[in-house]
Amino acid sequence: MKSPILPADDDARELARTLLAGARSAALAVITPTGEPMATRVAFGLSPEGTPLTLVSDLAPHSAAMRANPAVSLLLGEPGERGDPLIHPRLTLQARAAFLSRNLPRHEEVAAHYLRSHPKARLYIGFADFSFVLFAVHRAHLNGGFGRAWTLCPSDLGLPA
Amino acid sequence: MKSPILPADDDARELARTLLAGARSAALAVITPTGEPMATRVAFGLSPEGTPLTLVSDLAPHSAAMRANPAVSLLLGEPGERGDPLIHPRLTLQARAAFLSRNLPRHEEVAAHYLRSHPKARLYIGFADFSFVLFAVHRAHLNGGFGRAWTLCPSDLGLPA
């Protein structure tokens, strides 16, 4: 069968960067300690340097999973209300998760930046069980709708390799 | 730390069944042949008997992953446009994927039923690389918003155990 995957081009890079900049939530895929995949909804944002991140509670099962196995995937881009949900563009990131200690000065910098794009997080960002998790992306898959799929590398997204 | 997980109750069962019946797409988490989690958007529907299913192309990487390792998770329930995306209810299914051969009479029954809820799928349902995948659910996690989380079993969702 012919592979439908296209080489990266400027249209793909622009669409992927738009999805990355615009997402406020994501579907997170982790592998649980029993080896099963698990998909949950998480908040999504970018660090001051543009690194993808989330803010999660240690009470949620995805947090325990990421602490045990940092391999994750994130799906960005929401389907619209109308038409076939698969015509809407979406971006899959494959990444490694790294928790940011609340005790570091860096936590305050990231928190201040995050609250500008996620003001409602002020309600829980101060809770002791909430931490930022930074995602080091090593590969991405962009689907712009049927027949339009690209594999992208971190530099295509403006991220460090 | 106190577990925030509540025992199943009728409100949780009703909310979960509403999400299951209303979803037209899902985030699918699979484990790739290299052992990494991968999150993608897929179509979502129910069989004539109410079993969760999707319709996928063999050209998509999630199809190869599910054929090699049938352990999957699905996230249902879209965040709304407004407010914190995490206040919107969502349902995580943990399941095993089983492909339905296009050569079986059962394929035609499932296809006819699917097209009633997904009429736009008529454009590609006949393509030789598209198959239905049925999901045997063994556990579910319902999140109704902050502080409201339940673990559910298949019978809570009206599904076979």
Task: Give structural attributes.
homodimer, Pnp Oxidase, Chain A, globular, 161 residues, alpha+beta
How would the blueprint of this fold be written?
Two copies of one chain form a homodimer.
Chain A: E1 5-6, H1 10-22, E2 25-31, E3 37-43, E4 45-46, E5 52-57, H2 61-68, E6 71-76, E7 90-100, H3 105-117, E8 130-145, E9 148-152
Parallel strand pairs in A: 1-9
Antiparallel strand pairs in A: 2-3, 2-6, 4-5, 5-8, 6-7, 7-8, 8-9
CATH architecture of chain A: Roll
What's the average pLDDT of chain A? 93
**Main sheet characteristics of chain A:** 9 strands, mixed
**Which class of secondary structure composition applies to the elements of chain A?**
alpha+beta
Strand composition percent of chain A? 35-45%
The poorly predicted ranges of chain A are: none
Shape of chain A: globular
Whole-angstrom Rg of chain A: 16 Å
Which superfamily, in CATH terms, is the homologous superfamily of chain A?
A: Electron Transport, Fmn-binding Protein, Chain A
The protein's oligomeric status is homodimer
Query: What is the CATH class of chain A?
Result: Mainly Beta
- The helix count of chain A comes to 3
Order of helices and strands of chain A: EHEEEEHEEHEE
- CATH topology of chain A: the name is Pnp Oxidase, Chain A
Describe the structure.
2 copies of one chain form a homodimer. In chain A, 21% of the residues lie in helices and 39% in strands. Chain A has 161 residues and is of the alpha+beta class. Chain A has a single domain (5-78, 88-146), classed as Roll (Pnp Oxidase, Chain A). In chain A, a hairpin with a 5-residue loop joins strand 4 (45-46) and strand 5 (52-57). The model of chain A has no long low-confidence stretch (mean pLDDT 93). At the A-B interface, strand 2, strand 3, strand 6 and strand 7 of A face strand 2, strand 3, strand 6 and strand 7 of B.
